[in-house]
UniProtKB/TrEMBL annotation:
The keyword Transferase does not apply. Residues 2-144 form the RNase H type-1 domain. One of its GO terms (cellular component) is cytoplasm. GO terms for molecular function: magnesium ion binding; nucleic acid binding; RNA-DNA hybrid ribonuclease activity. Its cofactor is Mg(2+). The lineage of its organism: Bacteria, Bacillati, Actinomycetota, Actinomycetes, Propionibacteriales. This is Ribonuclease H.
Length: 152
């Protein structure tokens, strides 16, 4: 593991929800910065885009590293840090015996996390944290491109 952590901020969303969506991620290690974004022109949800952002950021890393991953999604942070172990034990069912929503992305996120040492942090959205604001701008760009693609 690299000593200096990779600091990642992620965001995602769609308008309307459900609708076309976008995600963004800012990866920072020392003076190195990488910006990633993308979108889904079909029908998606805020939660799917919020999950896609950390998946794409983690999958972009080329070697195992310590990651400090910041998200403004309580759904993502709660799912990965608190609920996932129970979902797996229950055959990817919730405590109410319902199928876990977005199970494809949860499994992909779990696999991406297993390649690294990931510490999860929640950050309040739109609170002036520069890299969170940049991740939001990147997600908005991804969503705009997805919306344009869905029209033409």
């Amino acid at each position: 593991m690299t000593q200096e952590p990779v600091i990642i901020h992620t965001d995602g969303g769609c308008t309307p929800n459900p609708g076309p969506g976008g995600w963004g991620a800012v990866l920072r290690q020392g003076s190195h910065v990488r910006e990633l974004y993308g979108g889904e022109p079909g029908i998606t949800t805020n939660n799917r885009m919020e999950l896609t952002a950390p998946i794409m950021a983690l999958e972009a890393l080329t070697r195992p590293v310590l990651v400090h991953l910041h998200t403004d999604s309580t759904y993502v942070r709660g799912g990965i840090t608190q609920w996932m172990a129970g979902w797996e034990r229950n055959g990817w069912r919730t405590s109410a015996k319902q199928p876990v929503k977005n199970v494809d992305l949860w499994k992909r996120l779990k696999a991406a996390c297993e390649q690294h040492e990931v510490e999860w942090f929640w950050v309040k959205g739109h609170s002036g944290v520069p890299d969170n604001e940049l991740a939001d701008q990147l997600a908005t760009r991804g969503m705009a491109e997805a919306m344009a693609a869905s029209r033409g």
